[in-house]
Amino acid sequence: MGPSSTAIPQKTVEFIRMDEGSKEDYQLLHTLEQRYIEKLPDRILTALDGLKDSLAGYKVTRLEHSLQTATRAEKDGADDELIVAALIHDIGDDLAPENHSQMAAAIIRPYVREQVTWILEMHGIFQMVYYADKLGLNPDERERYRGHKWFDDAEQFCRDWDQLSFDPDYPTLPLSHFKDRVRAIFSRPAFDPEILHATA
Ligand SMILES: [Fe+2]
Ligand SMILES: [Fe+2]
Known about the structure:
Layout: H1 23-38, H2 40-50, H3 62-75, H4 80-88, H5 100-108, H6 114-127, H7 151-162, H8 175-186, H9 193-196
Helix pairs in contact: 2-8, 3-4, 3-7, 4-8, 5-6, 6-7
The structure holds fe (ii) ion (2 copies).
One fe (ii) ion is lined by residues 89-90, 100, 123-124.
């Protein structure tokens, strides 16, 4: 615990219902929210670390799977947005087990180009080609998106990085290796049109 953690009583707003809040109240909340947002990279890294104890049954933990997916992306020369996307693509496993792709996409959407968000949002469907037939499900679910401008990118994400990354013997890089990139991406201004509409 550092000196900054000295217990100072937290200032609070005066109101008990929102419509009675004053300008000062909302300015205080805005300041506190900005400080809270600045800690987002730390919370992302903590959530990733928590994947150690997530869904079991594979030969690697969900954290190792995530790290391996990001390691393969890096080895293939992917840019930082895609590497960080690969790292967090299954971060929703715990809280959104039925739609984890959408959760990962929602988390990264304010900070990366739309192509990267689309890949994350679609990865669950595109991944089905590798296993769904074994469960009596439709492996070709992704065909609904055939012709989409980023179809090939989502296909490549799953084929070369995600579906391959269950190998306990692969030289997977540790979370510390990716920390600076996570901090850089999740410290960007949110919803900056120049970032959202950038091309790869
Ligand atoms: Fe996934
Ligand atoms: Fe995955």
